[in-house]
Amino acid sequence: MEDEAVTSEKFLLLIDQLSVDQKRHLSIKDIGIILERLSSKILDVERLDRESESDDCYNWTIKATIRGDVLRELGVIYNGNYYAISEHPGYKEENEGVIEEAEEEEEEEDRL
After folding, report:
1. pLDDT in tens, 11-30
2. Could you tell me which of 99, 95, 97, 77 has the C-alpha nearest to residue 87?
3. Where exactly are the structural domains of the chain?
4. CA distances from 70 to 23, 65, 67 (A)
5. Which of 3, 69, 103, 104 has a CA-to-CA distance to 94 between 20 and 30 Å?
């Protein structure tokens, strides 16, 4: 129960890739509907950015407040297509480095 009270700020990644079944990219409205369906885990969105990886693939970076301190991959079916949202690997590594440094500092303080 304690985990439910914990929230954290994370950068999330949603990949929007065209396929035979999916002829158009997601719109802001589509992203809003997907995030609403995941509102039990994703509590608030501060920022939403879209980067073009190629003509048929966009990466959506979502700065969000989530329930808990870790986000496992979440999936949702929208318009007959499956979309996964996970912690953004580019930002996750940076955050882990900061956390490791803080833990090392705490350990050093404990030794003193």
Report:
1. 999 999 988 777 889 999 99
2. 95
3. 2-111
4. 33, 11, 8
5. 3
